[in-house]
Amino acid sequence: MHMDLVAALDIGGTKIAGALVDGRGRILLRAHRPTPAREDGDTVMRAVEAVLGELTSGELWGRVTAVGIGSAGPVDASAGTVSPVNVPGWRGYPLVERVRAVTGGLPVELVGDGVAMTAAEHWQGAARGHDNALCMVVSTGVGGGLVLGGKLHPGPTGNAGHIGHISVDLDGDPCPCGGRGCVERMASGPNIARRAVENGWLPGPDGDTSAAAVASAARAGDPVAVASFERAAQALAAGIAATATLVEIDIAVIGGGVAKAGDLLFTPLRRALENYATLSFVRRLTVTPAVTGTDAGLVGAAAAALGGAAANGAVGLRSVVGG
Ligand SMILES: [Zn+2]
């Protein structure tokens, strides 16, 4: 029997998803549970165990060599702990140890969800073939991750590439992270909607004040809605330009619900980038939508597991991708 699969966990504030994934990134088995995000830590863990139980009980489990976890952050990969902002029952929670205990002592690789999405886009998506990339998720928050020198760069704790909390407005609004003028404070979906409402945008008869509703209004020509997307695009462009200038990326990939606004976001973003990415070595930077979609977290967790296994001398992501 081939030992050729990894188990992947994608842990978010609303859903815990699990899968068995092969060396080509194909998902062979899935399981999921809602995240009991308001419950105590052990109750949340029981939902993770229920997902893992569905994966370990099947006959494919014997082929699994490692477990990859992509979790809402912050995570601490060096300690094996997670403290997701939206799951208050988990603070410094020893997730890696708990997962190892129910998966027969397999190696467990933990990364933040932004890093997982980046691994997915580098393996299967828009950053494939790029050795230096920034990948971002723009939705209720703004997350991200880096590929540098052809390799995923999670950083010591698994949080590198956290572009949502780079300040792009020195005296800007306080951010829940404790900083000021963060990219997320201007570019996340809730903040796009908030700014539109503050500047006088009125929702339609259904009362929907989501970023998607603002996007619809912008498409219909509402100038306040358009301006809110332009401001978000400007913040993203400044953050992307800073990243490119620091570490020389040649592509920025943007996924998440806000990226679904398409040209409403990408056109002003590319325009704004011309104002911020000005040095010769960043001028050719391209910005493109993500392609891996809703499975990005699972595929990225699988990629992290395969990458971790490579570091331990077992089957490697590069050889898997190459073959
Ligand atoms: Zn912040």
What does this structure look like?
With 323 residues, this protein is α/β, with parallel strands linked by helices. The chain has 2 domains: 5-116 and 294-322, 2-Layer Sandwich (Nucleotidyltransferase, domain 5); 128-291, Nucleotidyltransferase, domain 5, CATH 3.30.420.40. The chain has 10 helices and 12 strands. The chain has helices spanning 41-56, 95-102, 113-124, 183-187, 189-198, 211-219, 223-247, 263-276, 296-311, 317-322; strands spanning 5-11, 15-22, 27-34, 64-71, 75-76, 81-82, 108-112, 133-138, 142-148, 151-152, 251-255, 286-289. Helix 1 runs parallel beside helix 2, helix 6 (211-219) crosses helix 7 and helix 7 crosses helix 8. It is globular and about 55 Å long. Residues 165, 175, 177, 179, 182, 184 line the site of zinc ion (ZN). Belongs to the ROK (NagC/XylR) family. Pfam families: ROK. This is ROK family protein. InterPro entries: ATPase_NBD, ROK, ROK_cs.
List keywords for this structure.
five-stranded mixed β-sheet, 323 residues, ATPase_NBD, ROK family protein, Nucleotidyltransferase, domain 5, 2 domains, alpha/beta, binds zinc ion, 37% helix
Element-level helix/strand string: EEEHEEEHEHEEEHHHHEHEHH
CATH architecture title of the largest domain: 2-Layer Sandwich
Q: Could you please say which CATH topology of the largest domain applies here?
A: Nucleotidyltransferase, domain 5
Rounded radius of gyration (Å): 20 Å
Bound molecules: zinc ion
Beta content: 15-25%
Percent helix: 25-40%
Low-confidence stretches: 310-323
Shape: globular
CATH class of the largest domain: Alpha Beta
Number of strands: 12
CATH superfamily of the largest domain: ATPase, nucleotide binding domain
* Overall structural domain count: 2
State the distance separating the first and last CA atoms: 19 Å
The main pleated sheet reads as: 5 strands, mixed
- Secondary structure category: alpha/beta
Number of helices: 10
Mean pLDDT: 92
In what order do the strands lie side by side in the largest sheet? 3-2-1-4-7
